[in-house]
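Bug report

Summary: structure tokens for Heavy-metal-associated domain-containing protein differ between web form and batch submission.
Environment: batch mode, default settings.
Steps: 1) Submit the sequence below via batch. 2) Compare with the web form result.

Sequence submitted:
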Amino acid sequence: METYKFKTNINCGSCVKAVTPHLNKLEGVQEWKVDTDNPDKVLEVQASEADAQAIKSTVEKAGFKAEQI
């Protein structure tokens, strides 16, 4: 299992709610969370099959930015 971290603009509970269905249906994602208290709004994703590019494009499809860190 890999852990990926992304700097995002997911900055509030409503943003998390908006991205939730997209990340939850991405195959291979085991667990994810966004640290909205961190200035970089770090999204941490644990995935067994999904890769960084798939996660990034899923977040972007939901209308947010994601830059791997």
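Above is the batch result. After comparison, the two runs are identical; trailing whitespace caused the diff. The chain has two helices and four strands. The mean pLDDT is 95.
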